[in-house]
Amino acid sequence: MGKDYEDFQALEADDGDCTPRGTAFPPQQFAWQRLCAPPRPLCALLALCLGLTVGTIALAVSGSRLGAEQRGTQGVLGSVNQSLSTELVGLARSMHTLEDKLTHVAASLDETKEKSIQAQQRLEEQVGVLRDSLNSLNCDLIELKSNGSRPGCCPRAWERFGRGCYWFSTEQKTWEESNLYCQAQDSHLVIINTREEQLYVQRRTVPLYTWIGLTDKSGQWRWVDGSLYTMDSRSWREGQPDEYHGHGLGGGEDCIHLHDDGLWNDEHCSRLYRWVCEEELKA
């Protein structure tokens, strides 16, 4: 009886123990659990591969979107560049057209200015001719009233400028011969004292070589009336006077003439040039 009780207790103890024993079946596992079962490094590698794959796909999708956006941006920029290029070409053409017009306008202005200067010169010449004619008529009237004298008037065929009378030759003589001719007319070779007188004589002589009353035969530059000349480079040609000795005529260059541009040049006195006589206006 006692043994039976012990056996019964052992049986109850066995019935209360739920732990599988012996050949009992293992617990059921899912596929991913079996895949990630030990060894663990393989599981980590697979997870890394899976993560890289997903990341690559995400980057590819993102890159595709960026590429599409970039292509769209490039298209817009290309369109803008083409539009700007077209506008620049049009602007360049407009600038070229404007430059042509400005050049034409400038040329027209220069031509107009030149014509205006020429017209002014012709007008001044005509006014001068009329003034001379009026003075001549007035002097003729004075001569008639005074029985042959012409007070305040220039001799016939002479021109009046300021307070002087001037005669311009049509022949050619040496400087000495020209000076003697003027002395025979109770005058002298022209003495230029002012800039206005210089311009007046220039207008009447250019482009002809013309003697004036200046010489340095005495070793100093003097006018024919004996007065000393003060050097003014504005009246002279560049590099003059140079006292040139290479002309083969002997000596230097002691006499002054107006060159073809109206400026002064020293020359050998034996040259044959035209000349200008001057006398003071008689009261």
Features of this protein?
single chain; alpha+beta; 52% helix; Mannose-Binding Protein A, Chain A; eight-stranded mixed sheet; 5 helices; 8 strands; 283 residues
Structure description:
The chain is α+β, with helices and mostly antiparallel strands and 283 residues long. The protein has a domain of 122 residues: Mannose-Binding Protein A, subunit A (Mannose-Binding Protein A, Chain A, Roll). It is 52% helix and 12% strand. It is built from five helices and eight strands; from the N terminus they run H-H-H-E-E-H-E-H-E-E-E-E-E. Strands 1, 2, 3, 4, 5, 6, 7 and 8 form an eight-stranded mixed beta sheet that branches. Strand 1 and strand 2 form a beta hairpin. The N and C termini lie far apart (193 Å). About 5% of the residues have low confidence.
Beta-strand content estimate: 5-15%
Instruction: Specify the CATH architecture of the domain at 159-280.
Output: Roll
Rg value: 60 Å
How do the helices and strands follow one another from N- to C-terminus? HHHEEHEHEEEEE
Helix proportion: 40-55%
Number of strands: 8
Return the CATH topology of the domain at 159-280. Mannose-Binding Protein A, Chain A
Termini distance? 193 Å
Briefly, what is this?
It contains five helices and eight strands; from the N terminus they run αααββαβαβββββ. The protein has 283 residues and is α+β, with helices and mostly antiparallel strands. The chain has a domain at 159-280: Mannose-Binding Protein A, subunit A (Mannose-Binding Protein A, Chain A, Roll), CATH 3.10.100.10.
